[in-house]
Design goal:
mainly alpha, elongated
């Protein structure tokens, strides 16, 4: 869960929940990624350019059968 530890994050989250609410970006003299996401009605607490924690691994047939049988029980 993202921390709403500053005014910009709180305003961004309110603007997502209630789109008719005008919650302008906090004027700080810069326009960074968080400000652009805020004005595009997306949450600015988690930057879109930050890398995600998901990695994909391609399994061969034997590995797939082992994982599948571990999760769902014995497979014929």
């Amino acid at each position: 869960m993202a921390d709403l530890d500053n005014r910009s994050k709180r305003a961004s989250s309110v603007q997502i929940l209630i789109p008719s609410t005008l919650a302008p970006v906090l004027p700080d003299g810069t326009i960074d990624q968080a400000d652009r996401q805020h004005t595009a009605h997306t949450y600015s607490g988690i930057l879109a350019s930050s890398p995600g924690g998901v990695s994909l691994t391609v399994l061969d047939k034997a590995q797939f059968r082992r994982v599948f049988s571990f999760i769902f029980g014995r497979v014929n």
